[in-house]
# Entry
Amino acid sequence: MDQTIIPPCTKEGPVSCMKMDFVKPLGRQNQTSVTEFVLLGFSVGPKKQTLLFALGLLVYLSTLAGNLAIIVLVWIDQCLQTPMYFLLGNLSFVEMCYTSTTAPKMLWDLLLRDKTISFIGCALQMYFFVTLGSIECVLLLAMAYDRYVAICHPLRYTLLMSQKVCWELLACSWAIGNFNSFINTALVFSLDFCQSNEIDHFFCDIPPLLQLSCSDISVSQLVTFNISGGIIIGAFGLIFLSYILIVFSVLKIRTAQGRIKAFSTCVSHLTVVSIFYGTLMYTYLRPSSSHSMEQDRLVAVLYTIITPMLNPLIYSFRNKEVHGAIWRALNKDRRSP
# Structure
């Protein structure tokens, strides 16, 4: 009879013991079935973990508050009920959900040092993370299309950006996001995970899970590059094209003041696109051999936690319409008995 010899836990610590408890032998195939993963997260001491928890909690609450404020303003203020702010409100909702797929678990791990996550929990976290990230890609493209129509075809704006078109763009973003996530999650979690269940990251993401697998990952890598990469590159390419057309249209405006005014409506969107797409391409479109988990963790903090917090500030900074909506909301509260 085949026997599986499991060595006792050594000086490596509780994580090593956890790894052995949650990796179950399957028998003759010398493969293993993982029932739980361990998120290694950030390699810092207990005091720094407490500091990171406090900073992370502050950033997370600021993200929720800022994006919720945008949603409420768009909902209650008649002046903001336009296609551009309809898309911005939906982007804020996606940002709240997007950061909530990773931040609460990260904060829990930092506070209680409980770094385990179930196999199903890891799959669900990755599914919602990839879904919402893909939705944001398409929403940013829809917002670029809105700016293109507003500047290049102002007389046809109400027709090309009607309420029906806005809802169709929103539905399309959710359909693409769920399709992309379903394919990637199904492929990644059909792989075998041998000997180790330690994910060198603070959440379940595609690159660290592929590195952990003992199966042939070439198919998963090819599909991820073609589908996810196609969404990222395709959306970014169309955004780039829309801004080329916007620049040509703006240059035709005779007065310098008119050119500045037209292009100023795009600055916020361009800033968000640069940060979001830059970090996504760095993480997901590099060859697997060039991946450094230490660098990936730092970049992931930027696009999963920092960017969602900055977006409300970027879109409201020097935005007279948002400032006016805030002022009207505050005055309304003061006047109410």
Q: What stands out?
A: Residues 99 and 240 are 26 Å apart (CA to CA). The mean pLDDT is 83. The chain has twelve helices and five strands.
